[in-house]
Write a structure and sequence with these properties.
Number of strands: 8
Distance between the termini: 6 Å
Strand content: 35-45%
Number of helices: 2
Order of helices and strands: HEEHEEEEEE
Helix content: 10-25%
Structural class: mainly beta
Length: 184
């Protein structure tokens, strides 16, 4: 598993109730990245749906809207999942994420997640790199981000053009970026 995959693992507390651990590797200054919070919200919805049906195809994300209210400041976050409506092909779930701080429960996010089967009519074409670029192994790894948030140490970055925070007239950048450790 990649770092994000293991970071968003949840413990089931009961029917529609889950608990996640606030991972310091996905924090910035005031709390976890919104994308990390959205990932645990989505994981809770998918896990709940998988518990309701044997049809794993029914638990594919179709759409998600997340509203953020406050940063996570506690070691754990709890998530409550409720099915709002099920149709023949879609399931609409409401997910509320909250933390308990000093004996008070505080909501940190609320989401509407729509799950359903994937359709076979979308064909994606992998984007090819522009021609004339050097091979990735010939571009040195950028090390100018030492001491920053842990998030930046989870990616290997190789700038071909336009190194950030450098002097010069260049406003264009080209970069190779890969996850560290590499995703499976």
């Amino acid at each position: 598993m990649s770092n994000i995959s293991s970071s968003v693992q949840l413990t089931q507390l009961g029917d529609g109730r889950f608990q996640g651990v606030n991972d310091p590797n996905f924090r910035l200054f005031t709390g976890p990245f919104g994308g990390w919070v959205a990932a645990i919200v989505l994981n809770a919805a998918v896990r709940h749906m998988n518990g309701l049906t044997d049809d794993r195809a029914a638990a594919n994300p179709v759409s998600m809207t997340v509203n953020f209210f406050a940063p996570i400041t506690t070691p754990t976050v709890e998530l409550d999942v409720v099915v709002q409506k099920r149709t023949r092909t879609l399931c609409f779930l409401k997910v509320d994420a909250h933390q308990t701080q000093d004996g008070t429960q505080m909501q940190i996010a609320s989401a509407l997640v729509i799950l359903g089967p994937r359709r076979g009519d979308l064909h994606l074409i992998e984007q090819l790199a522009p021609s004339g670029l050097p091979p990735v192994v010939q571009v040195p790894v950028y090390t100018g981000r030492d001491g920053g948030p842990n998030f930046f140490r989870q990616y290997e970055v190789r700038y071909i053009l336009g190194v950030p925070f450098s002097e010069g007239e260049q406003s264009r950048s080209l970069v190779y970026t890969s996850e560290m450790p590499p995703a499976p």
